[in-house]
């Protein structure tokens, strides 16, 4: 399930940038955060892919969405200049940002290589 984050949710579940100067991930699983806007065409194309991946990796990766229109402070805190932008958060490493709509296979590669989560789907 993809969860929509408000600033307060973000501070509690991801990173409290108001109290921590250094990055400190608050979550228990790696995470992907999709920064989007309702009017954004590429964001709309990415949304069903995010939903599919959230189902596939439901117990391995947290999937979040941040509406950049509603949460402008949050978007500003991460320097979001273009959307969609995605923040990939491994459990034990620094987060990485990617701009643009990635394809499903590209996202699976990031989940494997950056988040270090194995894909259990056997072909």
Describe this structure in words.
- By secondary structure, the chain is α/β, with parallel strands linked by helices.
- It has helices spanning 7-13, 41-56, 72-77, 104-113; strands at 2-4, 31-36, 62-67, 85-89, 96-99.
- It has one domain: Glutaredoxin (3-Layer(aba) Sandwich), CATH 3.40.30.
- The chain contains four helices and five strands; from the N terminus they run βαβαβαββα.
- The protein has a five-stranded mixed sheet with strand order 1-3-2-4-5.
- Strand 2 (31-36), helix 2 and strand 3 (62-67) form a beta-alpha-beta unit.
- The longest helix is centred in the middle third of the chain and has 16 residues, at 41-56.
- The two termini are 24 Å apart.
- The mean pLDDT is 93.
Tell me the series of helices and strands, N- to C-terminal: EHEHEHEEH
Individual helix count: 4
Q: Over all CA atoms, what is the radius of gyration? A: 14 Å
Number of domains: 1
Mean pLDDT over all positions: 93
Strand content: 15-25%
| Oligomeric state of the chains present here | single chain
- Could you state the CATH homologous superfamily? Glutaredoxin
What's the count of strands?
Answer: 5
Computed structural class: alpha/beta
Identify the CATH class. Alpha Beta
Largest beta sheet: strand ordering: 1-3-2-4-5
Using the coordinates shown, work out and report the CATH topology: Glutaredoxin
Low-confidence runs: none
Give the fraction of residues assigned to helices.
25-40%
Biggest sheet record: 5 strands, mixed
Q: Tell me, what's the shape?
A: globular
For the termini, the CA-CA separation is 24 Å
The CATH architecture comes to 3-Layer(aba) Sandwich
């Amino acid at each position: 399930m993809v969860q929509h984050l408000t600033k307060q949710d973000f501070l509690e579940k991801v990173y409290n940038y108001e109290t921590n100067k250094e990055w400190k991930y608050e979550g228990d699983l790696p995470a992907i955060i999709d920064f989007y806007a309702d009017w954004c065409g590429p964001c709309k194309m990415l949304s069903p892919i995010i939903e599919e991946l959230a189902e596939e990796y439901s117990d391995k990766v947290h999937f979040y969405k941040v509406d950049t229109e509603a949460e402008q402070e949050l978007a500003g805190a991460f320097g979001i200049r273009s959307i969609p932008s995605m923040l990939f958060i491994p459990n034990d490493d620094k987060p990485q940002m990617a701009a643009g709509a990635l394809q499903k296979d590209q996202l699976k590669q990031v989940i494997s290589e950056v988040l270090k989560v194995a894909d259990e789907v056997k072909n």
